[in-house]
Write a structure and sequence with these properties.
With about 425 residues, the chain is α/β, with parallel strands linked by helices. The chain contains eleven helices and twelve strands.
Length: about 425
């Protein structure tokens, strides 16, 4: 794991320094200032949509807006940004664009959504996860500005980030400004982990060379994509208010809304950077259960044996419990499976990607004949694990029997290099 730390203000070594005793009178001015500051410190978190609606920028007033959103695009009162922008008099909402799973979030993973009229507003609704993954000239006819408001989950192979990248590319191509309404990274903004994607493995589950767990908000990621990878769109990021990198949001001050059907809780999002690797194998990642990416297994697994092997690794912040389950869809639908449930006991030290690699390694080592690096899910391909990991060497290292420490050491140089670029785009302390 590679962790970036913000420098502490006045972080000097004070050992050996003697302080003179202070009187109560001398302390009173400081206490007064502290009390005055407390309301500001306790200010509620405001996502980009709330900041935008409270003070509509002059550059947007009178403009025709194309909104890229899904069910997570809501304000602090859980009102849809579709309804909020449609009701405004100072802008005109003219089109809706949806990522994977659709504007209303009713499509399963990988399902394509056709263009149609939105039932609630009558507005044209375009899918950016069908045959066309980027807005084209016909879709953008009559659109002055594209506004993006979708909750990301902080993991490289979550497709929403690449819908954003394609929106930026379309904005550049058709001279349409892009406004990103920022939202929290639910994994926090400090821990950065996993291998940086190698360009030859680029796909729609990994378009650019970033690590699996990038520690950026969607607004910061937009700025990084736009500048580091030469997109060059006219980009505006509406910053949040009240968010810092140590916070794990939503779930702390904002409610958790499912960004996709198999991301039901913030705990799911925390597990996903590592457990998502199972999507490139023949082991169920828990789709078809109530705990996807927390419950995993297959018909050939011995639950007690796998749990014991994983607990023996002593991964920080996590314990494994043997479980038995029957998925209702996806891999091994309606087949009894055995496996483990991941329980994160300390989110502050939990290393999600290292944990996922340890799981894949244990499955490979315990079941060398049955375990396969090829998904048997619909649309699965033999090289899908490479696309998820962003390289070919991780699979080779697991098959070769390399230690977990040796595998992690392999991704550190790329992570350090990414860290240098990443610092330029941090918007929050």
């Amino acid at each position: 794991m590679f962790k970036f730390h913000m420098r502490r203000a006045c972080g000097k070594n004070l050992r050996g320094v003697t302080f003179a005793p202070l009187s109560i009178g001398a302390l009173l001015p400081g206490l007064f200032l502290l009390c005055c500051a407390l309301p500001a410190l306790a200010a509620p978190l405001q996502a980009g949509i709330d900041v935008l609606l409270a003070d509509m920028p002059a550059q947007l007033q009178g403009k025709r807006i194309g909104l890229v959103t899904n069910p997570t695009g809501v304000d602090a009162q859980l009102r849809s940004d579709v309804d909020l922008l449609a009701a405004r008099k100072d802008v005109k909402l003219v089109a809706l664009f949806g990522p994977e799973h659709g504007v209303r979030g009713d499509a399963q993973a990988g399902d394509q959504v056709a263009a149609q009229a939105d039932a609630a507003t009558g507005l044209p609704l375009y899918s950016l996860y069908g045959e066309t993954k980027a807005p084209n000239a016909a879709m953008l006819k009559g659109v002055d500005v594209l506004v993006y408001d979708i909750q990301d989950i902080g993991t490289r192979y979550y497709t929403f980030a690449y819908t954003l990248a394609n929106v930026l590319k379309a904005g550049k191509q058709f001279h349409v400004p892009v406004w990103v309404l920022d939202r929290p990274n639910p994994l926090g903004g400090e821990i950065v982990e996993g291998p940086v994607l190698e360009p030859q493995f680029a796909s729609f589950v990994g378009m650019y060379p970033i690590p699996v767990r990038h520690g950026l908000t969607i607004g910061e990621l937009a700025a990084l994509f736009n500048t580091e990878f030469g997109i060059g769109a006219e980009l505006h990021v509406v910053k949040m208010q009240g968010w810092s990198r140590t916070m794990r949001e939503p779930g702390h001050a904002l409610p958790w809304l499912m960004p996709s059907p198999n991301m039901p809780t913030a705990d799911t999002a925390l597990a996903y950077p590592g457990i998502g690797l199972l999507e490139g194998t023949n082991v169920s990642e828990g789709r078809g259960t109530t705990k996807p990416f927390e419950i995993v297994g297959a018909p050939f697994v011995d639950a007690d044996k796998l749990a014991a092997a994983l607990n023996a690794v002593n991964l920080p912040g996590v314990r494994w419990r043997p479980v038995w389950f029957t998925p209702t869809f996806s891999k091994y639908a309606n087949e009894p499976c055995a496996g483990v449930q991941l329980h994160v006991l300390d989110k502050g030290v939990f290393q999600s990607f290292r944990t996922g690699v340890a799981l894949v390694k244990a499955l490979h080592d315990l079941y060398p004949q049955q375990f396969k690096f090829a998904s048997n899910a619909p649309g699965g391909s033999p090289d899908f694990f490479h696309k998820l990991s962003g390289n070919a060497w991780l699979q080779d290292a697991i098959e070769r029997g390399d230690s977990l420490d040796a595998i992690e050491a392999r991704w550190q140089p790329g992570l350090r290099q990414f860290g240098q670029a990443r610092r330029k785009y941090l918007l929050y302390p």
